[in-house]
Amino acid sequence: MKQELSILIPIYNNDCRQQVTELCHQAEAVNGLTYEIVVADDGSTEAAVSDWLSDISQMKNVRCIRREQNVGRAAIRNFLAREAKYNWLLFMDGDMAIPSETFVKNWLEADISQLGYGGYIVGKGEASSLRYIYEKQCEPMHRAEERKKRPFQHFHTCNFLINKELMLLHPFDERFRQYGYEDVLFGKQLRQAGVNIEHIENPAGFFDYENNAHFVSKTEEGLRTLYEFRNDLRGYSQMITFAEGIHIKAIRGFIVLWHRIFRKMERNNLCGKKPNLRVFKLYKLGYYLSLIKNEK
Predict the structure, then answer these.
(1) Mean pLDDT calculated for residue range 136-146
(2) For range 140-157, the mean pLDDT
(3) In DSSP terms, which residues pair with 35 in a beta bridge?
(4) Contact by Cβ (8 Å): 72, 174
(5) Calpha distance 44→53 (Å, rounded)
(6) What confidence tens digit (pLDDT) does each residue in 111-129 have?
(7) Amino acid 174: pLDDT
């Protein structure tokens, strides 16, 4: 069993008090464990964040770092890795729940030599939530046996354990300032470096769903990131593979035209009370192909 652990949580307008409380409780229950929890705020804009950080900073072995300038999802994780005291780093997103009473212990006992990913499970939600129905459809792919089939493509930052030396040697690419895909490129770079990713069944919980309009906006931001770094991510994105596989210009042009005409109607559906996943897929494809079209 690993005897030292740094739990690292980057946040941006997240209330992670319940998450940190449970992690503290579990870490304290492990005999002989030396640990710390470091929460780094990446330039949050909500005033309540100060109060939330003040609350958790009173907890044992918890350290909070407030950064005034938002540096992005990649840079804040690299910063946390440098700040960590111990050799094993458990990274978690700040909006994750802890569904298992032995979550921390499971990570400490896992046979991880370099890097491990524990996955996540989807909590209950409403049929009116686009994020919920999207995550629920994808849920089977989050199981360890499925992730192992494409270990580097199915890596996410929400819940992973990594050796500090390895993390410092292969940091996240800090060109990724906006939302999305820094984890995908990280997985690609690790594969090229010959690093193994061990996929285990020790999920975090994704139980809090943003409203539909916010999720659609995040999706658009992610697609812009994907397009910006398409040369780096080629072969690691189904969207890039599918879009570049449409060789007939007339078909590509038709999809772009469709998106131009029906974009508002599709977006109204996705942001409304009865979002449709087929519309969501079509919207994403049209949005991405429009980015290609607009550059030419």
Answers:
(1) 92
(2) 91
(3) 5
(4) yes
(5) 11
(6) 999 999 999 999 999 999 9
(7) 95
Determine the pLDDT at residue 292.
87
Across the range 269-288, mean pLDDT stands at 97
What tokens appear for 101 in the block? Answer: 């009473």
pLDDT confidence band for 296 (50 / 70 / 90): low
- Please report where in the chains the tokens 């770092």 appear, as a residue: 65
Q: Which domains does the chain have, with CATH numbers?
A: 4-206 (3.90.550.10), 212-295 (no CATH)
Contact between residue 100 and residue 202 where contact means Cβ atoms under 8 Å apart? yes
DSSP string, the chain: ---EEEEEEEESS---HHHHHHHHHHHHTSTT-EEEEEEEEES---THHHHHHHHHTTSTTEEEEEESS---HHHHHHHHHHH--SSEEEEE-TT-B---TTHHHHHHHS--SSEEE--EEE----TT-HHHHHHHHHGGGGSHHHHTTSTTTT--TTEEEEEHHHHHHS---TT--SSS-HHHHHHHHHHHTT--EEE-S--EEE-----HHHHHHHHHHHHHHHHHTHHHHTTS-HHHHHHHT---HHHHHHHHHHHHHHHHHHHHHHHSSS--HHHHHHHHHHHHHHHHHHH-
Which residue from 158, 170, 139 is spatially nearest to 19, judged by alpha carbons? Answer: 158
